[in-house]
Amino acid sequence: MPSNNSKYTPGIREQNAGYILENWKSATSVAEKMGIDTNTVCKRVREYRRKNILTNYAEEKGIKKRVLETEGISLSEWHICRVNCSDDPNSFLSTIKSVDTH
After folding, report:
1. What's the pLDDT at 39?
2. What mean pLDDT do residues 52-76 have?
3. CA dist 49 to 17, 56, 58, 68, 92, Å?
4. What is the pLDDT of residue 96?
5. How far is it, in rounded angstroms, from Cα 47 to Cα 58?
6. What's the confidence (pLDDT) of residue 53?
7. Residue 27 CB coordination number (10 Å)
8. Where are the domains positioned within the chain?
9. How far apart are the first and last CA of the chain?
């Protein structure tokens, strides 16, 4: 239950968690930008996943790893690309492939 002195409404909290998941953002980086404790943001993301019946972080990472392995891409390559890619999660495969050809 949110405290009475909370800066953010439950709707804003849910919106932030959705933004993090939909845009493949780091909860830590979003927390730092917003000036919120990292554990608080991670908790909100976990709650959002549970409420919306989404995979947890470990399951998502395993799924992502299998997809990348199918494409012949290592997790380390993906993380490098993720830092250099746009916010569009669909663009990372094409970006990695273009980096591999240069």
Report:
1. 94
2. 74
3. 9, 7, 12, 22, 23
4. 47
5. 15
6. 82
7. 22
8. 10-51, 59-101
9. 52
